[in-house]
Amino acid sequence: MEEVDALFDQLKRSLVKHEGNGEGEAGLERNEDVVTLDDSGSRERDFERIEKNLRQLPRLQNSFDKLDVPRVSESKSYATSKEKPPREGSTNEEWFSLPTPTGEFAHRVQRDLQLIKHRAALDPKRHYKKDRWRAPERFSVGTIVEDKAEYFSGRLSRRQRGETMLSSMLRDTDQTGYLKRKYSEIQQQKQRGRGRWKGKGKGKSKSRR
């Protein structure tokens, strides 16, 4: 309590020094909790004096003031329309930066694309939906990295791994064995009907000796 009384006495002595502050002094004598100080006039005069001095200072000239400030209300579609459209064959954000293959790379992956198109004939145990598959305009080729926790039997060895899908398939003994067997069956079926042939436009069959 003595410290609180000392603080109030110090505040009372500081208020006595200010002129025209009788209302605040009367409030302290009545032991009121709220004390109001009327010094708004002096503060306004100080702010006016500071503002007047700031206006008299020389203005700095630099290139920052000449920069073009973009409009805040500018929509995203309007901003993108002003940009130069990308050329055909380059990457695009809407395609997740997928490029359009051209040149030697496009020629090299043509066989791989044919394998994907006729993948249903490569493995009899796998069935795919029949559709008119076409090579996409934009695509990219990558390498599958096996997980370290995967067993060795599920991985491809260096001998089996090729630079392209076609080279990897030709190194697979099981796959090449199936393809050779199917090829021999097709050749045998063709050779069975080799003895008879029909003449063009005559509708007659002749035997070849």
UniProtKB/TrEMBL annotation:
Organism this protein belongs to: Zygosaccharomyces bailii (strain CLIB 213 / ATCC 58445 / CBS 680 / BCRC 21525 / NBRC 1098 / NCYC 1416 / NRRL Y-2227)
Protein name (database record): ZYBA0S15-00122g1_1
Region (Disordered) location: 18-43, 65-99, 164-209
Pfam families xrefs: Fcf2 (PF08698)
Composition bias type Basic and acidic residues, residue spans: 18-33, 65-74
Biased composition range(s): Basic residues: 191-209
Molecular functions (GO terms): RNA binding
Places the protein is found: Nucleus, Nucleolus
One cellular component term from this protein's GO annotations in UniProt: nucleolus
BP GO annotations: RNA processing
InterPro entries reported for this sequence: Fcf2/DNTTIP2, Fcf2_C
Keywords: Nucleus
Residues of the Fcf2 pre-rRNA processing C-terminal domain: 90-182
Superkingdom of origin: Eukaryota
